[in-house]
Amino acid sequence: MSMDITFLGTGSAYPSPTRGASALVLRREGECWLFDCGEGTQTQFMKSHLKAGRVTKIFITHLHGDHFFGLPGLLCTLSLQSSPDPNKPPVDIYGPLGLRNFIWRSMELSHSQLLFPYAVHELVPTRDQCPAEEFKEFSCLDGDEVSPQVAQGRILQLDPVENSYLLVEDEQLVLKAFRLFHRIPSFGFMVEEKPRTGKLNVQKLKDLG
Prior knowledge:
Blueprint: E1 3-9, E2 23-28, E3 31-35, H1 41-47, E4 55-59, H2 65-68, H3 71-80, E5 91-96, H4 99-109, E6 118-123, E7 155-156, E8 165-169, E9 173-180, E10 186-193, H5 202-207
Parallel strand pairs: 3-4, 4-5, 5-6, 6-7
Antiparallel strand pairs: 1-2, 2-3, 8-9, 9-10
């Protein structure tokens, strides 16, 4: 399995003319997985060799603006470049509790309709991930207003045994989220390649004695 990483932005707080806000792309098997989507990420895509239309998964570390304010714009641009396809798999979006409501509100208030399916999977934080005065309870936001047909997804709880959140697993890799301590609940992501069975050239070994 081949993978490569492209840094679209490494800036903090806000983008600059020469440095984008936080965004990183992991490319594997023809897919692009986007980690954080700061303001201007879609412009950084255009400047790179990557194609935003190949993004199949998006992971948001935390809900500070410099890490996800570029998401509504990117989703709308992807929609403009798409054609309706009922068989197209959804773009999976992972992030802290409250992300689903943010995306839905952004689309609703801007009268934007995405032409592709997406699913928002929210990670439920624990109270020890940030100072007590900064912790906010966002579960009340997931009311009847957020249509389940628009942004279906899972609510992911911490696995107390593994001390992590299992997000993605296939034959080749596992992707987990871990809790980080920050001013607001934050998560780090780990991509781990599964062990592969080696290939032994028996005839070559015999030839070598």
